[in-house]
Design goal:
The structure is a single chain. The chain is an alpha+beta fold. It has a single domain, classed as Uridine Diphospho-n-acetylenolpyruvylglucosamine Reductase, domain 3 (2-Layer Sandwich). It contains eleven helices and 14 strands.
């Protein structure tokens, strides 16, 4: 490891000030950042650790939505009884991220800010039409994810929480790469206040909505509605684990399984 400045602010106001400026990286769960630093893929001049901000952790219900603090661990979302009862697909998704060590340290805010193209949480956020809260504003899921490791967050902007509306129905299906446990393709489907949503992770540069599948399910919410459905392979990822065509073929299959599970 190389020399850098380390700060652990005790308030969100202090964290916001510390996060401003060039050469700063925010440390949430550290499951991606620390590994990147060890490989010299990231070489920040200053690390700002949010681990001391208890105000950024926790789960609460507000009306017909659950607000999950940015520093809430994956394991805590997976184990939360209220989430299990109201949005079981979200608890299932959180419980399948990485391994036990990753779930014990990784945070929802860190996952979303990193926006790995194969991460699970972005599929839940986009698939449920969630809202990302920051220290500056609120960002709708459809406006948050911009591209490969790119989000709508400005320099120094910190995620503070995510609010998930409770859907009528929702389900998650993940076809994982067995070594990394990232999604080769993952599909989150929901039917709720924002209509029918189908979010896909692992297949493209970042999470995206499968609008053609959404149209079919809006007309007929059933796995049968997706029989014979296809998704274009254009622009999808292709690597040693699976071609773009393979990923394209998986998307409607997993979407149909998710709809069947939601029923």
């Amino acid at each position: 490891m190389y020399a850098f400045t380390f700060e652990r602010p005790s308030s969100l106001a202090d964290a916001s000030r510390s996060a401003a400026g060039a050469g700063v990286k925010i440390l949430a769960g550290g499951q991606t950042l620390l590994a990147s630093m060890k490989l010299r893929l990231a070489q920040p001049e200053k690390l700002v650790d949010l681990g001391g901000l208890a105000e950024l952790a926790g789960i609460k219900r507000e009306g017909n939505a659950f607000v999950i603090g940015a520093m809430t661990r994956h394991a805590d979302v997976a184990a939360n009884a209220d989430i299990k009862a109201a949005i079981p697909a979200l608890a299932e998704l959180a419980g399948g991220i990485g391994d036990r060590q990753v779930r014990a340290m990784g945070t929802i805010g860190g996952s979303l800010a990193n926006n790995d193209p194969a991460a699970c949480y972005p599929a839940a956020v986009l698939g449920l039409g969630a809202t990302v809260h920051t220290n500056q504003r609120q960002i709708a899921a459809d406006a948050f994810f911009k591209g490969l490791y790119e989000t709508a967050l400005a320099d120094g902007e910190l995620i503070t929480a995510v609010s998930f509306p409770v859907p009528e129905k929702a389900a998650w299906q993940k076809f994982k790469q067995p070594a990394s446990r990232f999604s080769l393709v993952g599909v989150f489907v929901s039917k709720g206040p924002q209509g029918v949503r189908v979010a896909v992770t692992g297949a493209g540069a970042c999470v995206f909505r499968a609008s053609a599948l959404e149209a079919k399910l809006s007309a007929n919410w059933s796995d049968a509605a997706l029989a014979g459905a296809t998704v274009s392979a254009e622009g999808l990822n292709s690597d040693l684990h699976g071609s773009a065509e393979y990923r394209a073929a998986l998307i409607p299959v997993l979407a149909a399984r998710a709809v069947a599970a939601a029923a």
